[in-house]
Amino acid sequence: MIMQTAVRARRPLATVNPFAADVVAGLSAKPKYLPPKYFYDLAGSALFERITRLSEYYPTRSELGVLKEYAAAITSLFPPGCAVVEFGAGASTKARILLRAAASVEAYVPIDISGDFLQQDAARLRRDFPHLAIHPVVADFTTMLEPPAEIAAKPRAGFFPGSTIGNFEPHEAAGFLRRAGVILGAGAVFVVGVDLAKSPDILYRAYNDAEGVTAKFNLNLLARINRELGANFNLDAFEHHAFYNAERSRIEMHLASTKRQKVRLCDTTIEFRAGETIHTENSYKYSIDSFQALAHGSGWSPITAWTDGLFSVHALRMTEDK
Ligand code: AVJ
């Protein structure tokens, strides 16, 4: 008897596993790069949590301080009866500060790609804010096009904390702000957390902590590729490099190969020269003025910015339909 082999249509890698496709594309490029959004698997999110508590890593502490100090002023700008839409919500620690200060907010819409986390957090929010309608949305906020139907009739306040916007190239940040304007609509306020350009020493230390947590966070990207894609990266043969590129006003993170080596991954071989790097992250730093100029060029009117001198929280208004 002749055995029949199941014939399966070959689907492109990108459809089967976008992570695999992005990794192969990034490591085949010159120079090599990997998208920073892949830092945040379970292990990476736990490492980032640790980073936010490091003495050298000021952004989280600074932003929380600014939000707490100016919560009343920030939320006084929200349209009455609005829905707060948070882009990339995570554990919504920062949104809670605003939600506690804003009596007239009617709904909270956290958007995140991680569904499990979002549902758990929604249950806690419903308990802590019983008067609020909580509508979690599992989506990639960078590709989202419209607000969820539940808040279609409500005016909106957007919230994008954490200087996540610094991971985008400035032209991508402009594109995101423009799309967010479409989602949030006329009359909306947008509260955006943006890390400030400052002394290169302070910036350097924030991404080169003494305990080496940031190095672990960076290297976890290779560990994740090994775990999920069956690659054979030797983590001992790569080093964490982070430095301030003053000309482009950004921190760059790289993983540098300590020697000439080959790595197997998804049926391909990736070759490294000694010292060759994978560019894993940019973290752009702005001045208050340079960020306001970027926002203005993306259809938003800057209203105010609050700062502790290290980190800024901007309020922007969408004055007309874009
Ligand atoms: C979450 C993108 C704001 O750029 O400071 C922290 C990520 N990378 N340490 C940042 C990060 C290394 C962080 N953002």
Q: Can you put this structure into words, describing what you see?
A:
By secondary structure, the protein is α/β, with parallel strands linked by helices. The protein is built from ten helices and 14 strands. The chain is globular, with a radius of gyration of 21 Å. It binds N,N,N-trimethyl-histidine. N,N,N-trimethyl-histidine (AVJ) binds next to β12.
The hetero molecules present are:
N,N,N-trimethyl-histidine
Count of helical regions: 10
Outline: globular
Strand content: 15-25%
Low-confidence stretches: none
In whole angstroms, the N-to-C terminal distance is 67 Å
- Describe the main β-sheet briefly: 8 strands, mixed
The count of strands amounts to 14
In short:
By secondary structure, the chain is of the alpha/beta class.
Keywords:
322 residues; alpha/beta; 8-stranded mixed beta sheet; 10 helices; 35% helix; binds N,N,N-trimethyl-histidine
What is this structure's SSE topology?
Layout lengths: L12 H4 L1 H11 L3 E2 L8 H11 L6 H17 L7 E5 L5 H9 L5 E6 L2 H14 L4 E2 L2 E2 L17 E5 L9 H15 L4 E7 L4 H7 L6 H17 L8 E8 L4 E8 L3 E5 L2 E5 L4 E8 L3 H9 L4 E7 L3 E7 L5
Parallel strand pairs: 1-12, 2-3, 2-6, 3-4, 3-5, 6-7
Antiparallel strand pairs: 7-14, 8-9, 9-12, 10-11, 13-14
Helix pairs in contact: 3-9, 4-5
The protein binds N,N,N-trimethyl-histidine.
The site of N,N,N-trimethyl-histidine (AVJ) has 11 residues, from strand 12.
